[in-house]
Every structure is written in C-alpha cells, then in structure tokens.
Specification:
Blueprint lengths: L10 E2 L11 H4 L6 H8 L3 E2 L9 E3 L2 E2 L7 H7 L3 H8 L8 E3 L10 E4 L4 E4 L13 E2 L2 E2 L15 E3 H13 L3 E3 L5 E3 L5 H10 L8 H9 L4
Antiparallel strand pairs: 1-2, 3-4, 5-6, 6-7, 7-10, 8-9, 11-12
Length: 220
C-alpha cells in the first residue's frame, strides 16, 4: 500500500509504550477485554482525517483509526450502539473488535484478539482459515470462539489475510484509481488502469509518481 498509493506520513506507527489515548477506561463502555485494548494500543493505523477521502484497503472499505477518529469521539460521547453498528454490525464478544468502518458498501473485518482470527463479513472470498483442524478443504476454529461458525466463508488467520490482500495488489486484482480510491475486477476503467501500471513497471520497477499522473489523465 505504501509503495502504491498511501504516503509514508499516513502510516501511523505506535510509540514503544503504545498509543496513550487508547485506554481500558475508554473502551470499558464497549465491554472489551484488556487483550483488545492492548492490541489496539500497539496497532499501526492509517491516518483518518474524518473526511470522505480516507485510504481504502479494499474497494469501498477503510480502516478504523481507534486512536482519535470520529468513531472514538462517538464512543467517548456514549454512543455505543452507533459505534457497534459501524465497527461490528452486531454485538461481539469481549475479545473481538472491528478493524474497519462497515456499511452498505463497506466490509466489516473483525479481529478475535485471543485466537488471532479474522472474519471478513460478507466476503466474496472463500474461507482460507481457522488455525486448528482441517475439515473438507476448510479449517475449523476453536468451538469456544463464540462468534464464528467452524465452516464460515471469509474466516482467516491474520497472516494469511494480510498476504492475500498483498497478493491482490501484486496480481492487479485491485488497484488504486487515485490516492484514495481502489477499483477491482469488473469496475469501469480497470483494464485501462492495469495497462498504465504495467507501463510504469508494476510491481518490480514501479515508478509511483509517474504512474499516478498517468492514471489521473485517464478520461480527462
């Protein structure tokens, strides 16, 4: 993402002691465990300027910046149900937290901080995950997770999910249409955008600034 379209200063790496604004007290109203708070406290975020121009990680999907975003402001104001709707869709267990801002077009991606499992709700992808027992081509997750069926599609080990997203960019199954907007197979301009990326050396000898200028010139 940094190589393609997210500038370096938008990648927010936590200080050694974690983000000071993420505390157990702030998240107590959501009923989240210390495991969740610790994970969010030491997570790298993509800057959220509370504008329509956030950086997408999947088409129509942006990360939730749990440090100081519109979401955390709602939480501090006591708007618990509003926060749950956009980050979890439905109340989840104390060890599960939403990583994205979900909605009509946006994907909910949930992290079980105890088991290191992601659920990509309404995912168009087949299941790749669960850390435990192989079963008819899928994997089972622990029965005591309390939030996901053992054969649900869209359930991933965290490392597998991140590699899968990287591969989407490497193979040009999704690409930035501009600095903030991703497009994917079937979208208008996808073939033209892919051609521009190839012309500018993606992925091995990529010329980021030249490519961005050429893409901006499409249909102008």
């Amino acid at each position: 993402m940094r190589d393609l379209y997210v500038p370096d200063d938008a990648i927010l790496v936590p200080p050694e002691d974690g983000w000071p604004q993420i505390t157990t007290e702030t998240f107590a109203i959501l009923g989240k465990s210390d495991i969740v708070v610790n994970a969010l406290k030491h997570m790298t975020y993509i800057e959220d300027k509370c504008t329509p121009f956030q950086y997408e990680i999947l088409p129509e999907t942006v990360m939730c910046d749990w440090r100081e975003s519109s979401t955390i402001h709602q939480l501090k104001a006591g708007k618990v149900d509003a926060v749950r709707i956009i980050t979890e869709r439905a109340p989840m267990s104390a060890d599960v937290v939403g990583l994205t801002i979900g909605g009509r077009e946006c994907a909910w991606i949930l992290l079980d901080c105890r088991y290191g499992i992601l659920e990509w709700k309404d995912s168009p992808e087949k299941s790749r995950a669960g850390p435990m027992v192989k079963d008819v081509g899928l994997f089972k997750v622990p029965e005591d997770c309390g939030w996901v069926d053992s054969s649900v599609e869209g359930t991933w080990i965290v490392e597998d999910f991140l590699e899968h997203i990287k591969d989407k960019f490497r193979t040009m199954k999704q690409l930035p249409r501009d600095a903030h907007k991703l497009i994917a197979y079937g979208d208008k301009d996808m073939d033209d955008v892919k051609a521009v990326y190839r012309e500018h050396g993606w992925p091995d000898e990529f010329r980021k600034e030249e490519c961005a200028a050429a893409i901006a010139a499409i249909d102008t």
